[in-house]
Amino acid sequence: MQDQDPALTAIDDQLTAASADIDQLLTVAGVRRGPAVDIGAAPAWVQTSIAAMGRAIDDGTLQVCRHLTGPQPCALQAEVPTRMICLTCFAQARAYRTCASCGAPAGAPPPYGGVEDLMRVWVVLHSRVLCMSCARPTGIGGTFGS
Q1: Which residues contact 132 (CB under 8 A, 6 or more apart)?
Q2: Which of 5, 84, 103, 114 has the highest CB neighbour count under 10 A?
Q3: What pLDDT is recorded for position 120?
Q4: What is the C-alpha separation between 71 and 95, in angstroms, rounded?
């Protein structure tokens, strides 16, 4: 049996730790963990976000937050899926986000304003926000809010 490259082992360890970190952060934030789903069964907005991120990685246009210095939890907002940001910048951006459906300001940060859906794919937290006007008619109750 051949030993794995120590650098690959280190990256795998960092990704595993980052994945555990993001689970703990979500638990502390009161986000209930949903069932594990195959990426093919993920909501369309998540698949669209992942595809846009993949294209941006492939063509070299992915913007990366200056705070991301290695494998660590990060976030991708559905309205800007070509920009990967750290969780601190993600939290600060909540008040300025736009509705993924109509593009209007989402209002106050959830749970008082828009409704936010979250889905974790490995160490990337995918997020979309709907304003209350767009969320109410559909009965969508995101991860935060109602």
Answers
A1: 107, 113, 114, 115
A2: 114
A3: 79
A4: 26
DSSP string, the chain: -PPPPHHHHHHHHHHHHHHHHHHHHHHHTTPPP-----GGGS-HHHHHHHHHHHHHHHHT--EE-TT--SS--EEEETTEEEEEEEHHHHHHHGGG-B-TTT-SB--SSTTTSSEEEEEEETTEEEEEEE-HHHHHHHT---SB--
Look up residue 48 and give its two tokens.
């669209």
User: In this structure, are residues 140 and 115 in contact, taking their beta carbons and an 8 Å threshold?
Assistant: yes
**pLDDT tens digits, one per residue of 111-128:** 555 678 888 787 788 888
Strands 115-121 and 63-64: unpaired
Residue 106: pLDDT over 50: yes
Residues contacting 121, CB < 8 A, separation 6+: 39, 42, 46, 50
d(CA 94, CA 5): 40
Q: Please give the model's pTM, rounded to 2 decimal places.
A: 0.70
